């Protein structure tokens, strides 16, 4: 979950707006109006992938490092919500319980669950998760790093409420400082982390369901932040891990996150370019999260709070694509959510960030699939309001670069361009049997409907440069 700013209901983003740092509260206008869109995540056929999925799961932060799900839960998610991906949480402490000793039984258990997603044709992004560094940093308050890699130098720590304040406890700050080697005394920790990722990638390099690897959840700089952290510290760290992974896996996509303190609220990122040593086109993805302060930590999406959050929407929509263009990478929204279904404006907030993602042509992973008021299953096992909202028609694989996608009043519109070398049809998930129209000349395009998967396949006219299809119930 996010490193949220405990500044009352307005959050860090609201504070930036009040300080006059943020842009005025205006609609951001057409996506990429100020420049070309970033490149796209693609599949083995060269099709543009739009990833819709859930984070699985808070329960994976516990001692076992495994989520609560079973095979039927995965099948239900794919059937009822149309998800084609999952951000699957794993933990360093479970992968490497002792320095240099890897728990392959744990990775076998992960592989068993990854196979459930493969059965549903879903893409898996393995996320090395951490919150508050690790459980040894502050009396079990965190998750992620093993005890042997938690060097606090004996400083004190008391878990805080709200939990994010625990990040600034002395022991937690020192654990991060030592991991990042700010004090010049523990370079071995980053080396071990890179070697650990190499082991994980080697284990899953030949697993077709694993699309790639999210290197670290919401990296936190300890006592260094923003431009003092992202450029000089986080960027070379990512390069070190990418180089290690590429020794064993040349094809997996690698997801790099900016520091959450700024990006979660829409402030600019100073993350530097991470080079991909693989042959051919780079496969690095910029993967920011979106947790506006006004709706997080029990906030609402109405009144003044909504106006502040709308400013953060505009900031995020401007600054995150700008960073992706600068880095030359695709973009993916790795975490978003944070509101309980009983919070004022929760449905409107969800519709608005979904529309933003469509407008930007990017995929997302919702936090989370855990039972509860902010998940997709309530305490009794039934759907929450988010279940239906996230079951949103979309083009999941597109036979060319996506130029526009929108969904409104039950109608999905998708536009793309023809480029050489892309195989396969455009695939659209739709919850019911659809009616489809196309701008391609009559008789030059075909479609097929898979009733079981709720997937519409469209083979466009190869002689037409641009295509738009409209799908209605």
UniProtKB/TrEMBL annotation:
Mitochondrion keyword on record: no
Protein name: Endoglycosylceramidase
One Pfam family, short name: Glyco_hydro_5_C
GO BP terms in the entry: carbohydrate derivative catabolic process; lipid catabolic process; polysaccharide catabolic process
Domain Glycoside hydrolase family 5 C-terminal as annotated: residue spans: 392-471
UniProtKB keywords: Glycosidase, Hydrolase
Residues in Glycoside hydrolase family domain copies: 68-371
One term of GO molecular function: hydrolase activity, hydrolyzing O-glycosyl compounds
């Amino acid at each position: 979950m996010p490193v949220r700013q405990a500044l009352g209901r307005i959050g860090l983003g609201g504070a930036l707006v009040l300080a006059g740092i943020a842009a005025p509260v205006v609609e951001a206008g057409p996506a990429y109006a100020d420049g070309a869109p970033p490149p796209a995540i693609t599949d083995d056929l060269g099709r543009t992938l739009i990833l819709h999925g859930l984070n699985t799961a808070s329960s994976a932060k516990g001692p076992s490092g495994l989520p609560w799900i079973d095979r039927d839960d995965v099948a239900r998610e794919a059937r009822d919500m149309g998800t084609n991906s999952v951000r699957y949480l794993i933990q360093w402490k479970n992968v490497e319980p002792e320095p240099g000793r890897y728990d392959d039984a744990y990775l076998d258990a992960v592989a068993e669950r990854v196979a459930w997603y493969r059965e549903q044709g879903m893409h898996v992004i393995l996320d090395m998760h951490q919150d508050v560094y690790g459980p040894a940093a502050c009396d079990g308050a965190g998750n992620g790093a093993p005890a042997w890699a938690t060097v606090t130098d004996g400083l004190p720590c008391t878990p805080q409420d709200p939990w994010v304040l625990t990040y600034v406890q002395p022991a937690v700050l020192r654990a991060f400082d030592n991991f990042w080697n700010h004090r010049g005394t523990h370079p071995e920790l980053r080396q071990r982390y890179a070697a650990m990722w190499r082991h994980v990638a080697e284990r899953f390099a030949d697993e077709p369901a694993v699309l790639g690897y999210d290197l670290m959840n919401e990296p936190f700089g300890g006592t260094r932040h923003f431009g003092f952290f992202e450029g000089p510290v986080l960027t070379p760290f990512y390069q070190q891990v990418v180089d290690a992974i590429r020794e064993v896996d040349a094809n997996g996509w690698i997801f790099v996150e900016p520091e959450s303190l700024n990006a979660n609220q829409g402030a600019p990122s100073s993350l530097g370019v991470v080079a991909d040593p693989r042959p051919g086109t780079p496969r690095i993805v910029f993967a920011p999260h979106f947790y506006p302060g006004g709706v997080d930590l029990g906030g609402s999406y109405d009144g003044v709070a909504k106006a502040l959050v709308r400013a953060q929407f505009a900031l995020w929509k401007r600054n995150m694509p700008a960073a992706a263009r600068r880095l030359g990478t695709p973009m993916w929204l790795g975490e978003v959510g944070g509101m309980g279904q009983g919070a004022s404006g929760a449905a409107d907030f969800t519709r608005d960030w979904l529309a933003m993602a469509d407008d930007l042509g990017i995929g997302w992973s919702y936090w989370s699939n855990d039972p509860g008021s902010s998940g997709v299953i309530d305490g009794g096992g039934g759907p929450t309001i988010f279940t239906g909202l996230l079951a949103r028609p979309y083009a999941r694989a597109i036979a060319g670069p996506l130029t526009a996608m929108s969904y409104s009043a039950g109608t999905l519109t998708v536009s793309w361009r023809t480029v050489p070398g892309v195989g396969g049809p455009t695939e659209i998930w739709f919850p019911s049997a659809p009616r489809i129209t196309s701008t391609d000349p009559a008789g030059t395009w075909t479609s097929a409907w898979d009733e079981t998967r709720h997937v519409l396949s469209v083979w466009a006219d190869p002689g037409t440069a641009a295509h738009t299809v409209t799908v209605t119930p």
